[in-house]
Amino acid sequence: MKRFFTLVVAMVAIATTASAQFQIGVEAGLNVNFPSSFDNATLKQTVDPKNSLGWFAGLKAKYQFAMGLGVDGAVLFSQLKNDMGQSSKELQSIAVPINLRYQIGLGKLASIYLAAGPQWSVNIGDHDWSWSDVSNANNLVNDYYEVATKKHNISANLGAGVILMKHLQVGFTYNIPLTKNGEMIYREPTIDNLGRTTYEEYSENWKNNTWQIRAAYFF
């Protein structure tokens, strides 16, 4: 019985090794950003985040095991526009997604895949920016806005797509933030009867939910 068990384990190991496939390639695609709206009523009235487009590109690798299971990973330069309604900033980051994947063959020419896993992103561009606009009828004081983005954040990817001719992969991914992307601060000025200016401050965190359309070519 022991010999039989050892033989089965050895056969599974040999089959897994023989069917494992490693490929490396390049990947690029579009970011479609959907920033979360603010819950604070004052911030809702003054700042209205907008949806925006961006892009990403980099290197990708995948390792396919037996029974359709595999993993993939990438190192991507990602550009994303943060549009807060009254001001916007192009944000750059290095994104490192790592996914567990399941691949289903549709014949010799095509297959479909499902993928899910974590992503770690590091901001490499501007982290903070601010602006002001005139809100007082006498042009004496300004509203003041400040955006502070996090230096890094963690998110989760859920994706699916098709593989053609074992080399071209086309799919989509929904990126769900697990940590906040930044903080919005709004300072609203008021002038008292003595002409003194005071500020009421409101702040709230926000997250970037992102749809990605992606294409990769494996050599």
Series of H and E elements: HEHEEEEEEEEEEE
Q: Estimate the global geometry from the Cα principal axes.
A: elongated
Number of domains: 1
Helix content: 10-25%
Q: What is the CATH level 1 assignment?
A: Mainly Beta
What CATH architecture do you see?
Beta Barrel
Taking the sheet with the most strands, its summary is: 8 strands, antiparallel, barrel
Count of helical regions: 2
Biggest sheet, spatial arrangement of strands: 1-2-3-4-5-8-9-12
Question: In words, what does this structure look like?
Answer:
The structure is a single chain. This protein has a single domain, classed as Porin, CATH 2.40.160. It has two helices and twelve strands. An eight-stranded antiparallel barrel has the order 1-2-3-4-5-8-9-12. With 219 residues, the protein is mainly beta. A hairpin with a 3-residue loop joins strand 8 and strand 9.
